[in-house]
């Protein structure tokens, strides 16, 4: 399957919304993308679509996120959320290509790390590990293994022990 991965464009917006609704079986993730796109946390180069024969079959978004350390310092990181692949094309590697390309672009843009709340069987293959390894916590009450982080630059999370502050948009959906 020859897919193209590129930055989202304005005309992709309705298809991206429908894709998330179909993949997650609910509207929350599409609404989250719409809210984040309008926010200060949005990075156009890190909203990527997977395209097959002119149809959008996958989308991934990385937005700006802060870790507030125990000493009150702010460490800039990225939130990977959401990612989805159209239901009838899942398990064919598209999600993996989106994650890998997103991590590459993020590193090229100079970001040092990424945080994800997600399936603990899926993300470790890309290099994610429980964020607790770096002493990073979240206000969400989730099992340790689903809240993960990854360094794009070695040592980027070395002194980042603290709490992730999710943008308010995450609470609005
Ligand atoms: C999760 C998702 C983005 C993965 O994309 P994909 O193209 O199907 O995945 P890939 O083909 O790249 O990878 C397949 C691997 O993912 C695993 N996987 C796929 N969906 C999964 C899920 N919902 N939970 C756990 N693992 C999953 C498969 O077991 C497979 O593992 P393997 O490589 O060890 O066999 C896609 O299945 C999806 O859109 N799911 C619904 C929305 C969702 O849950 N998004 C992620 C939120 S964290």
Structure description:
- The model has no long low-confidence stretch (mean pLDDT 97).
- Strands 1, 2, 3, 4, 5, 6, 7, 8 and 9 form a 9-stranded mixed sheet that branches.
- This protein has a single domain, classed as Aminopeptidase (3-Layer(aba) Sandwich).
- The radius of gyration is 15 Å and the shape is globular.
- It is an alpha+beta fold.
- Helix content is 21%, strand content 32%.
- A hairpin with a 4-residue loop joins strand 3 and strand 4.
- Bound molecules: coenzyme A (COA).
- The site of coenzyme A has 17 residues, from helix 1, strand 4 and helix 3.
Write the layout of secondary structure elements.
Layout: E1 4-7, H1 13-24, H2 28-37, E2 47-52, E3 55-69, E4 74-85, H3 94-108, E5 113-117, E6 129-130, E7 136-138, E8 147-151, E9 162-165
Parallel strand pairs: 4-5, 7-9
Antiparallel strand pairs: 1-2, 2-3, 3-4, 3-9, 5-8, 6-8
Bound molecules: coenzyme A.
Major sheet size, sense and barrel closure: 9 strands, mixed
For the record, the CATH architecture stands as 3-Layer(aba) Sandwich
Global morphology = globular
**What structural class do the secondary elements suggest?**
alpha+beta
Helical proportion, percent range: 10-25%
Give the percentage of residues in beta strands: 25-35%
Give the averaged pLDDT, no decimals: 97
What is the terminal separation in angstroms? 34 Å
Radius of gyration: 15 Å
Low-confidence stretches: none
Given the structure, what is the number of helices?
A: 3
CATH topology: Aminopeptidase
User: How many strands?
Assistant: 9
Order of helices and strands: EHHEEEHEEEEE
| Small-molecule binders | coenzyme A
In CATH, what is the homologous superfamily?
Gcn5-related N-acetyltransferase (GNAT)
């Amino acid at each position: 399957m020859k897919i193209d991965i590129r930055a989202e464009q304005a005309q992709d917006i309705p298809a991206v919304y429908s894709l998330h609704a179909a993949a997650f079986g609910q509207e929350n993730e599409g609404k989250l993308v719409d809210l984040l796109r309008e926010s200060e946390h949005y990075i156009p180069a890190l909203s990527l679509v997977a395209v097959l024969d002119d149809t959008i079959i996958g989308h991934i978004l990385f937005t700006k996120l802060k870790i507030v350390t125990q000493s009150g310092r702010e460490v800039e990181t990225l939130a990977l959320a959401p990612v989805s692949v159209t239901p009838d094309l899942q398990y064919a590697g598209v999600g993996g290509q989106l994650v890998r390309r997103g991590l590459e672009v993020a590193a090229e843009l100079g970001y040092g790390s990424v945080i994800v709340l997600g399936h603990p069987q899926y993300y470790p293959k890309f290099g994610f590990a429980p964020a607790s390894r770096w002493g990073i916590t979240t206000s969400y009450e989730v099992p340790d293994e689903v809240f993960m982080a990854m360094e794009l630059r070695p040592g980027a999370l070395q002194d980042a022990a603290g709490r992730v502050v999710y943008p308010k948009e995450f609470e609005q959906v």
